[in-house]
Amino acid sequence: MKRLLLHTISSIGLTAAAVLVVPGTASAAPEAVAERAGQIEAYLHTYPGLTPAEAADRVDGQAARAALLKRLSTEHAASFGGSWFDARTGVQHLNVVGSGTAGFTGLAANAGLRVKVHPAEYTMDELTARTDAIRADRTAAGAGRLGVGIDPQSNRVVVAVTSAAAARSALGAAATDPAVVTTVTTAVPAVPEACHSRYNCSAPLRSGVALRQAGTNLCSVGFTVRDGNGTRWTVTAGHCMRRDGEIWSHNTVDIGPIGNAWIGDNIDVARIRMNRAPWADASGGWLYNEGNPNSPVALNSAVTRYAQIQQGDSVCLQGYNSNARHSCGVITHAAHPDYNGMTRVDFDGCQGDSGGGWYAPNSGNRTAYGTHVGGPLTCHSQYGWSVFSPLPALNAFWDRHSATTIRVETR
């Protein structure tokens, strides 16, 4: 089983009450207020020099940044070379291949964003294709290679290796590719965060509640998914599964058998078939509501492209150890090479959070980003962190191994 590291968000000396007085929350629903407070605290933790008002500005601009990235990565894929957001200065950085600088600047200005455009050699689609090819090159995978990711600031694919001597053999066919560089690293092994010690909910099944097997709390619900034939599953982490076909439940009520597990590349995933009442009969696309467990909140959308996940944006975790103070963090690496392209967040998850859903609550419009894998053996530590399987990678895996299209349910 491949072992991966996780991260958690730490507590800082700012009270929840101090966060909530930032302008912009007075008329919001209680759950949106709590989410926004968590995002603000995440920015203040990761960037101590920010004021609460500056952190609120970074949170409130994320919806516009996300919309811009989706547009650039789809309508301008032939020239979009990746991005990152500098939360310290509030500047959105964009890479452009060719002569599209003015167009990129204009689109950002129309969205009300401060932007800096950089010339680049490779598009995000090209870099993504290269990472996929390197992961598929199994002849080089065992030659000192730890993982492969993308660094948007250098506009390169980065392969993490155990030593300089191992670099060339670990690259395989990509050894002469100028778009690929190596970094020597000793990654801390990620520890899957299942546990044996949250919550008892009725239908619908929602992201962030506890999953059980044989009566023991082990992992968390990520998202519910549906295929083209209408069959539905609950998604969790692959390392949670001990045997194919074992029955998993929530609140002592069986959901169905687990299977289709995969641990490798940049994903760690399994599916539980929802073939039993009341779960199978209820609607999908829901998140646990910390402020009111009997009133789940809607998941509105899901990222579909790697380019929509960028360094400097904030995301929140729905795991069964999440709470009002410990749930949100800032993305530090959209595709970390030490963890083979998984997304790294400045937030420390806990044992039992494995499989939980990572999402961005942009002004109450919640977007799925991926499912929790793990981190260090800490829980809500100030210096912890987490990694998660990015949703575009899960979609690609399902497309390869299912006869029909499988996607996260949204509302």
UniProtKB/TrEMBL annotation:
Keyword Signal listed? yes
A single GO BP term for this record reads: proteolysis
GO MF? serine-type endopeptidase activity
Concerning InterPro entries, the annotation shows: Peptidase_S1_PA, Peptidase_S1_PA_chymotrypsin, Streptogrisin_prodomain, TRYPSIN_HIS
Q: Give the residue range of the signal peptide.
A: 1-28
Keywords linked to the UniProt accession:
Signal
Q: What is the protein's name according to its record?
A: Streptogrisin C
Q: Which organism is it from?
A: Lentzea albidocapillata subsp. violacea
